[in-house]
Amino acid sequence: MNNRRILPLIIVGVIAFFVLLGISSSLFFTVNATQRAVVFYKFGDGLDKDNVIQPGFHMKAPWNDVFIYNVQETSQDENMDVLDKSGLSIHVDISVRFKPIPEMVGHIYEKFNLDYINVLVIPEVRSAVRQVMGRFTAEEIYSTKRAEVEATIKEESEKILHANNVTMVALLIRSIQLPDQIRVAIESKLQQQQEALAYQFRLDKEKSEAERKRIAAEGEARANNIVNSSLSDKLLKMRGIEATLELSKSPNSKVVIVGSSKDGLPLILGNN
What we know:
alpha+beta; Prohibitin; 3-stranded antiparallel beta sheet; Tetrahydropterin Synthase, Chain A; single chain
């Protein structure tokens, strides 16, 4: 009798378990460490864009929708053809790194849904690349102003993306391909410029060395003139006498003849 009462309860419990298991995906959801989420309340206020759900295990009503965003840094490569200032076609490879602002994923979803990369980021970056490179010549983009072009593209892209709650991390021009004829001409011109700079460096170095020698020679000549103008017969005789006195103090045997030399200076004779 008891078994007959318990059996229906067991059957109901089993059915309830499988029903709950089947709808668990509608009741529970997980947000990973590199994700954020927002909820759309169908029978409430709609998208709750200001309440961003943090990483962890969460529960919701089965009829509400959850939209999960990856908020880690993302890299995207783009290959495109652009025109330079003179209308010359250039093929460039661009790498752009970006990420959504985690606290603003609700606002991003409101404007672009989940596909903000293809709807916002890529079109704006490509547009900025075309506009900026159109202000420079192929030679400037290829050689002398490549860093400036990169910085300008990043700056202009960053303004638009940041206004739409996306952070621009970096933008790099990975490669630039020009028509062979133009590329060879630019490389030849750059080589000639480097040779001209090297030649000018050698000239400047030689001029500097010649100037150094001239200044040294003038200084030496002035020093000799000063010494010559300060010498006199009396001074020389006095210095000679002083030197004679110092030599006479040495233990070596010698003969000193005073006033016997041509200029009247002492003459020292010794056996060593």
